[in-house]
Amino acid sequence: AKNALNIQRVQSADQGTYRCRVDFRVNPTLTFISNLSVVVPPSRLVVYTELGVDLRNIVGPFLEGESITINCRAFGGLPPPRVTWWEGTVLLDLTSEEETSEYVTNTFLVTSLTRRDLHRPLTCKASNTNLTEPLTSTVTINMNFPPLWVRILGDRAPLSAGRPYDLHCQAVGGRPPAVISWRLQNTVLSSQTDKTSHDGNV
What we know:
The protein is rod-shaped. It has a five-stranded mixed β-sheet with strand order 4-11-10-6-7, with no helix packed on it. It has a four-stranded antiparallel β-sheet with strand order 3-5-9-8, with no helix packed on it. By secondary structure, the protein is mainly β. The mean pLDDT is 91. The relative contact order is 0.14. It starts with 15 loop residues before the first strand and ends in a 13-residue tail after the last strand. The protein has no helices and 15 strands.
């Protein structure tokens, strides 16, 4: 004889020890014990700044030298999920600072931002089982930069009175592109035309 216990739509409350007892007319009773463990994945992931502002895709813009603190909080999950920070396949932070019965929070600090941090992707992952894909959320760092340099192009040869000349001023490395203005003594000149490179760098 066969008998099966079928649990549909397993819930966390179904976790526990199950006993199957087989009674015989002559032989001693047999008891089989099965332990059912139920894993509940985290329900949602929230990434936010130290001021509590929720982040979607972009964080910033920031200036060079600034530091940023980004929090990642995973809600739900049984057992509590592991919340980690990644850059691509590189693990940056695996230590959670806060864990309650409702959520787990991992705070990631980036100090002294440089130009290399522009467009840097930071991914938070939350998982408590290998049976499902982890919850993920990625934010990208946006930054503003002052120009690296500004210069007047040309050989600086003497100019002749009565003849038109084009003077070129070039600013490189500003983000957003630098606004250039010309002055003659204290007078602002307005007969200029601007041209910006496709990437906005020049």
